[in-house]
Amino acid sequence: MGRIIGILGGMGPQATVDLMQWIIKLSKVEREADYPRVLVDNNPAIPDRTEAILYGGENPVPVLRSMLKGLVEAGAEIIGMPCNTVHYFIDEIREGFEVEIVDMLAETAAEVRQRKFQTVGLLGTTGTLKTGIYEKYLTDVEVVLPTSEEMELLMEMIYSVKRGEIVPQERLNHIITKMNQRKKLDGVILGCTELPLIAKDQSLEPVLINPTAILAQKLVELSQG
Asked: Under the phi-then-psi rule, with left for phi > 0, alpha for psi from -120 to 50, and beta for the rest, what region is 56?
């Protein structure tokens, strides 16, 4: 058996399930027993990350550290967090723990560089977009952000998905098209784990970059070797 994967989940629940589905899809198996073992703490009660970052809301770190402790004690050896915004707190979350937490943003930035993209659009929560947490990994790439109005529309879509509602992909495509008209983009990072759940068709132009799938690929590689 390979290394055991742990998932700090619930941000939101649908995104957590999506990561698990990607892990299954990307695993190399000949039989059922070859899939990685995955331990999941799917806790939707984690305080809202954007509220904490921008508006002084409750700090999610204590809850996440408690969840991480539980996963490690249960045997998790590598950790994934299917939420882009929570990576704002990654250093605080992993402080004092020896377990490896895969940095989804760093892995996504590596994918952008591997594709030799020079200009990328970035979609996500206002917590992700206004703090520049992706930009620190993409210093050699031009990052194009949505307008304030488009950010508001994105937040509406993201929280609709978190409530279990279906959001037509056309609404997301409209924002991507507008951004691409303002500045020609090599690709667009779907920088909130709810957005790939809207963008079911990811064969569009510009190229859509899915951090959930990238995180899953890294977790599988580390687990299966």
From this structure: left
